[in-house]
Amino acid sequence: GNVGCVDAGPLATRPTVENRRGGTRPATNIYGPMEAGFTSENHECLGNVVVPAGMDTRLAEAMLHAIDGCEDREILDFCGGHATPYHYHEKMSCLYEDDATTGHSTRIGTALDGHGLYGKHVDGGVEPDDLDACGGRVGVTPDSGGEPVYYYTLTDAPPFTMGCFGDASTYPVTVDQCRSLYDACQDEPVVIETVHGSGPFTLECPCWDSRGSNVEGHGTPCFLASEGNCTGALSTSAAMRGGAGRVVGRAMVGCLAAAAVLFV
Questions:
Q1: Which of 42, 81, 187, 196 could form an S-S bond across to 38 if both were Cys, CB 3.0 to 4.6 Å?
Q2: What is the three-class DSSP state of 186?
Q3: Residues 223, 199: contact at Cβ < 8 Å?
Q4: Residue 153, class by beta-carbon neighbours within 10 Å (0-12 exposed, 13-18 middle, 19+ buried)?
């Protein structure tokens, strides 16, 4: 569901997108990493196969590519969005640029917790190495007046935007803390198969570790690893720790409604 909204400046560069019938849709919504699932009603090449809800968009597309006839299907457009109501999941490369002086990416939008979402680069034009499990960090941004603030940056790997809502007072939110926020993260994982291989994945759990897994005690998942080492084995699950962070929004809250909540 909706986790944030595109700010006015970036929105002016792409306020709407065209639909198949020639009309337009507002391009204001920013969603979390999870997809609602696909059937043959979305992609006729699926036949009787169902791509389940609760997978991140990258994995859902990789699973789609494992189906005969679906190998070339893309679920997102060039800027990382799709569907009606139109919403972004990833990339958003058409909505930001890197600051000419610092190399830091400009601001794209505002999360429902009020913190900013920026492009994928920090000072020096590099990708950050200090993001917490929510996808946030503390640092100076092009519009923070030289003061360090907590904010989110886009990433190529899930959660892409944010996996939970963090804050400077709780930074860094750990993976265990993130997973403790979601009942779904305690569920048994399902086995996902793609063209690369298979492995376990916990549906509706938006908390990934440094190995790219959202399953406790699991190594790099084989369903995405086209090279290098990966594992399909599970170890004994460790107890989750509670604490920092907050659940990201799951309801389909439109950005106009969200703005009314945030800014009254």
A1: 42
A2: helix
A3: yes
A4: buried
Residue 225: pLDDT band (50, 70, 90) is low
Q: In 10 A of CB 107, how many CB atoms?
A: 21
Give the DSSP per-residue string, 153-175: E--SSTTTT-SSB--TTTPSPPH
Q: What is the DSSP letter of 174?
A: P
Residue that the structure tokens 């907590």 belong to: 150
Indicate yes or no: pTM above 0.70. yes
The DSSP secondary-structure symbol of 165 reads B
SS3 187: coil
Rg over CA atoms, the chain: 18
Q: Tell me which DSSP letter residue 44 carries.
A: G
Span between the terminal Cα atoms of the chain, in Å: 22
Query: CA 199 to CA 191: how far, in whole Å?
Result: 5
Q: What span, in angstroms and rounded, lies between the C-alpha atoms of 179 and 242?
A: 8
In DSSP notation, 84-101 reads TTTEE-S--TTS--B-TT
CA atoms within 13 A on the CB side of 241: 7
Q: CB within 8 A of 214, min separation 6: which ones?
A: 158, 179, 185, 201, 202, 205, 206, 207, 208
Q: What is the pLDDT of residues 14-63, one digit of tens each?
A: 999 998 777 899 999 999 999 998 888 888 888 888 888 999 999 999 98
Say if residue 128 is exposed, middle or buried (CB neighbours under 10 Å; 0-12, 13-18, 19+). middle
**Tokens 């590519």 label which residue?**
65
* Total residue length of the chain: 264
